[in-house]
Structures are given as structure tokens and as C-alpha cells.
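Figure 2 data, in text form.
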Amino acid sequence: MAEIDAFFRLMHEQGASDLHLASGQQPVVRVSGEMERVKYDVLENNALKRMLYEITPEHKIKSFEETGDVDFAYEIPGLARYRANFFQQQHGVAAVFREIPNKILTPQELGLPPVIPKLASLPRGLVLVTGPTGCGKSTTLAAIIDESNRTRKDHIITVEDPIEFVHQSQSCIVNQREVGLHTMSFAAALRGALREDPDIILVGEMRDIETTALAIEAASTGHLVFGTMHTMNAATTVDRAVEIFPSSEQAQVRSTLADSLRAVISQVLFKRIDKKGRCAALEILIANPAVRNLIRESKTYQIPSMIQTGKKYGMMLLDDSIMDLHKRGWISADEAYTKCSEKSRFKALLKHTPVDFTEV
């Protein structure tokens, strides 16, 4: 057993989502969204580096020594997988580990709305899951991919950096590729995927022009494509997908995106106050013909109104989802106010209205 495994077992026992190890500091775990120090000695650079390198593949050590940053996945059989990121900081080496459960929860077990598992049966198109880092995008996507894997007879290709949830082939054939290990880049893997007879493609992150262009192209040529972006709501997601391109190409991209987009799911995590754990508030945009027209005509500012009137299609505004969680007694009024979009709607819930100088 590797020396660092003791930290992972402690992390698992405490229900922590992340483990932070940094030279010059005590270890820290994130539990229910909050950082908690571990009762342990301050970590010394050489000792920490030795501990980290014990579980790091040789080619990743070489990459880290050359660049100062590296990502990879580590697994403890029977416990969990961990997404690792190493980086250099002023006192030496540091690392952050995110726990990825071995068991993939179903959309129902995650408490996701009924429209979410339906996305797994779409014949083609682009589905984007968005939100800040650590909001549960990977967990939601894993649940949808697993639903497809159990209910369809297709070929699924995932491109990730690194591979997070491991999918065993069930009714579908599943091939998972890791950037840096099985392919040079997201874009290279996507170009290759179009010649590999896929029905469903998962793109771990759409973060550059080439990857975004290839994902939209794949969705518009008969494939079902799932991807992630770091945007906060449906309207900004559509704008970001278009504005990443040069202005001379945006009109064509907007038209292609309008035709290929099927749904946008934006989510935010909250600490639960009724019990230990966290829960997600979601904004859901289903791209019906009216929504596609708004995208095509560059009227994304009207998308929130379209979501509000599209509840029968499964659409939901983020603020409505946050309000629902608060009414259930799951989240605090203060956190609801902090993470909502329309502050005036939530002010009445607060005993003391916080002063936000950015909104004065």
C-alpha cells in the first residue's frame, strides 16, 4: 500500500470530496464544500514529493518536472478513483485530489429531474453540462452516459483528461480515451472519433476553438455529443460557444449550433443544512424550435423568458430550482441568496441583507 493511501482512506471515511496536500502546510480536506485541516504535521517539500511520486506514472513525473503541472487518475481497488493535479507553488510541490466514486449513481439516485435521463435516448445533437469547477458536472454526465449504456445498443466513445468515471460495456460498447495517454489532445481524439463509428461521444471539456468546432460538427452530422463548459447559465453557455470563434465565423457557427443544440444543463452545488452532504440546483434549457430561432437570431437575452414558459418541456430556471431547495429546507437562505441570479427575489428570505458593494 502506498503511503498516501492512508489520506485517501481518511478522506473516504469523512465523506470529503477533495484532498489538498501542499508543501509548507497541513493536509486539508473539503467536506460538504468547506475546507477542514487534518491533524497532521506540516508537509515538507521533499517528503511530499516522495509520497506523491510513489503513485505517479513515470511519464507523468517527467511531464511534471518539465512543466510544473500535471493531471492523471489514481485508483485504489474497492475504494475509489481519484483525479489528481500536481502543481508547483512558492513553498514547493502541491497536489489536489478529487474523489470519483466507483459506483455510478443513476439520475434517479442523484435526484435529477425526469427530463435528464431522457437526454440519454436522443438520436443526435449536442448536450452541454455547465457550471463552475467542482459543481458535479462529471457526476451528472456519468449518470446520463450510464443510462445510455444500459438502455441502448450503440458505440460510446469518451475523451477525458483524465478518465474519471469508468464505464463497463453493457448494452453498448464503451471505449474511454485519456488525453496525454491515449491521444494527444481533445481535438485529435474528436477527429479520430469521427472515423471510429461512434453513436455517442463524450467530450470531457470544450475549452478551445478546435475542440468546440469539432464537437458542434459531430453533433450536426448525426452523432449524440455530450460536453462540458465552465459557464453559469444557459444563455451565457450559448454565447460562449459562439464567441470563442472569430467574429467572421460567428454567424455560421450560430446557425449550426442552433440546428444541433438539444439541451443545456447548468448546475450549482449547495451545502445541505438538513443533513450531511450537498445538493445541486439546476437550470435546464431544452432546445425546441422557438429556442433555436432565438439562437439563430442572436436573441439569447430572451432565453430566460423562454425557459420560464417552457416548463411543460422540462425546462427550469436556476433561481426556481434554488427556491425549491430552500422551501424543502435543504439549503440556507444566505447561500441561496449568494448563488442566485435575481437577488431581489431572495432578499425577503434573509434576516440580515448582506452588503455587496459590487451591486451598489
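Caption note: The domain at 115-345 is CATH 3.40.50.300 (Rossmann fold).
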